[in-house]
Amino acid sequence: MAQKILIWTCVCVFVSTSIITLLGIINKIKIDKSYLSKLFIALILEVVAIGVLAFKDSFNTEAKTDFVKITMPDPGLDYYTATSNTLSIKGAYMMLQGHSIHGYIRVKDKINTLTNISASKNVFLYSLHNTDLVVNEKAIIKVTVKENNKVLSEDSIIVSVY
Q1: What's this model's pTM, rounded to 2 decimal places?
Q2: What is the CATH number of the domain that holds 142?
Q3: Is the pLDDT of residue 63 over 60?
Q4: What residues does 118 pair with on adjacent strands?
Q5: Among 41, 59, 84, 156, which residue has the fewest nearby CB atoms (within 10 Å)?
Q6: Cis ω for the linkage preceding 73 (within 30 of 0)
Q7: Looking at the 3D structure of the chain, how many domains does it have?
Q8: How is residue 49 annotated by DSSP?
Q9: Which domain does 28 fall in, by range?
Q10: Is the pLDDT of residue 148 over 60?
């Protein structure tokens, strides 16, 4: 309630300053030149302040939420160990300060942490060696954004290994 009173008080001051200043400029009311110049400066400052307050959040480039998305390989990929020694996992993320990104691979009932992450400019890259995979099994790869071990966002894909 107090905030609404303050806002409406500021609106009334702005409107009254505007009316008095404009009427003084067009000589509808007589105002001493020294007061008129101060009123005009106050009006300009009020307009600038309103403009800054109206658009202050538009220039904030910090993340407002956390997300992570695996972009490569495609979900459901058939990966052939005979043709490549490593499987690259790429994706994008956005996270608030103090949060961290983690990757995991699950093959059968074994879960391993992906420790060879390369992350910069909101892009991550994991390289999985064939030794982390089991032929003729599905690998579930999961990437998460966490805060104090609490998962805030996650994405996962399944890769069939041959």
Answers
A1: 0.55
A2: 2.60.40.10
A3: no
A4: 125
A5: 59
A6: yes
A7: 2
A8: H
A9: 2-59
A10: yes
